[in-house]
Specification:
456 residues, mainly alpha, Serine Threonine Protein Phosphatase 5, Tetratricopeptide repeat, 70% helix, signal, Sel1-like, ISR_Activator, TPR repeat, TPR-like_helical_dom_sf
Length: 456
């Protein structure tokens, strides 16, 4: 009887210890969830929002998740979260080991993270797009919208041995976007905006997807939506105030294109912002230092004229224009042409090189480039044969875009009957007024003289 009672007491005591251990283990897992859960993990407990990797407090998260892995070694979620904690600490070797372990346990987020390590050659892994592709396919087939988005990018760019296939990329972006994934919504919006991926060009759809992403706080979505408000696209009314608000939200998250855009609003005093060249220059420099071409170009123009508290410094302007031009910025390509034409910014005077940059910008439809190319045809510069007909054609292309110097030059051609154009004082007067209304002093003086000769 005593033995039976002892056995019952032992069982009761054991159960109490087991229950206490189970509660403690659950507490360890919960601590890891709070410290390092992914916002994109459907398996995370209710009430846990998740934390982006760059917001994880790495030392406490590593400690919490190490305890959780010891307490629940078969829980693939906490193993994956330990990998995220190491990733936040930039301990790529340790992160890779945890992601690999969680992937072998069937965790699709870990597979997606591991694919990223193969893409970038992190954690001691070689750069291997083929292995990254295998992991992304595995995760995408399991329904991971992050993997679907990344796999779409592989199809878009033709990576991992795939042929470029924007239609398949668009399909995958839509799968992920319709599950609410902001990055996919941005990519899909971009495809609609440009009519790519087998999708029609549709600004309404682009604006809709940008807004879905922006409403989640996505900086790219905020910046793209701001551009639509600025230009009045996608069924949106022009609204500089809303554009400025969205640019600021994105800029405050460190997005370089938004910082450059916000700087331009300060430069111009748009969207309810006071004109502030100093703040504009600071934003341009922040964007330029991150390699943003628009920021580099705008900062270069400030150095040219010594605005925003910056010294007038052609050498720095030339350097920045070169950086922006090499990334395809049209304004800087045209500006660099001017630097070579005039031998500015420690660049040699070189009409051939000036012509190359003017033509680069002109061939992509940039009005100033078209005008400057027209001037080279007019003067027979840079090795070109003098050709006023071609000059007139180039001036007209730029004038039709509202470029005042081209409107003035084309007006003079009509006034004088040059470049194969019939003499036409009325057309000359029309063009001169367009340029004069933009503040062009030469056009204003010429218009005054022409009006004296025109019949009343």
């Amino acid at each position: 009887m005593r033995l039976a009672c002892f056995a019952i007491a032992f069982v009761i005591g054991f159960c109490r210890v087991a229950a206490a251990d189970e509660a403690q283990n659950a507490a360890f897992v919960a601590g890891c969830d709070r410290a390092a859960a992914s916002p994109f993990d459907a398996s995370k407990p209710a009430g846990i929002a998740g934390i982006p990797v760059d917001k994880i407090e790495s030392s406490s998260a590593i400690a919490a998740c190490q305890w959780a892995v010891q307490a629940a070694p078969t829980n693939d979620r906490v193993v994956m979260q330990l990998g995220r904690a190491y990733l936040a600490a930039k301990n790529y070797d340790a992160a890779r080991m945890q992601f690999d372990k969680a992937n072998r346990m069937g965790n699709v987020l870990a597979a997606t993270e591991l694919a990223g390590f193969y893409q970038k050659g992190l954690g001691g892994l070689p750069v291997d797009d083929t292995e990254a592709l295998r992991l992304l396919r595995k995760a995408a087939d399991s329904g991971s919208y992050i993997a679907q988005t990344n796999l779409g990018y592989f199809h878009q760019m033709g990576r991992g041995g795939l042929d470029k296939n924007e239609n398949e990329a668009g399909r995958l972006y839509k799968l992920a976007a319709d599950q609410g994934y902001a990055s996919a919504q941005i990519n899909l919006g971009t495809f609609y905006q440009s009519g790519r991926g087998g999708l029609p060009r549709d600004d309404l759809q682009a604006a809709r997807y940008y807004k879905l992403a922006a409403d989640q706080g996505n900086a790219f979505g905020q910046n793209n939506l701001a551009n639509f408000y600025r230009d009045g696209r996608g069924g949106l009314a022009k609204d500089d105030t809303e554009a400025a608000r969205l640019f600021k939200l994105a800029a405050d998250q460190g997005l370089a294109p938004a910082q450059a855009n916000l700087g331009k609003y300060y430069q111009d005093g748009r969207g309810g912002l006071a004109k502030d060249d100093v703040r504009a220059a600071r934003l341009y420099k922040t964007a330029a230092d991150k390699g943003d071409a628009y920021g580099q170009s705008l900062l270069a123009f400030f150095y040219e004229s010594g605005r925003g508290g910056l010294p007038k410094l052609d050498t720095e302007a030339a350097r920045l224009h070169r950086l922006a031009a090499d990334q395809g910025n049209l304004a800087s390509q045209d500006a660099l042409g001017g630097f070579y034409e005039n031998g500015r910014g420690d660049l040699p005077k070189n009409e051939g090189e000036a012509l190359r940059f003017y033509k680069m910008a002109a061939d992509q439809g940039f009005a100033a480039g078209q005008y400057h190319l027209g001037c080279f045809y007019e003067g027979g510069l840079g090795g070109l044969r003098k050709d006023e007909s071609e000059a007139a054609r180039r001036f007209k292309l730029a004038a039709n875009k509202g470029y005042a110097p081209a409107q003035l030059s084309l007006a003079l051609y009509y006034e004088q009957g040059r470049g194969g154009l019939a003499k036409d004082d009325n057309e000359a007067a029309r063009l001169l007024k367009l340029a004069a209304d933009q503040g062009d002093a030469k056009a204003q003086a010429e218009l005054t003289e022409l009006n004296k000769r025109l019949p009343k």
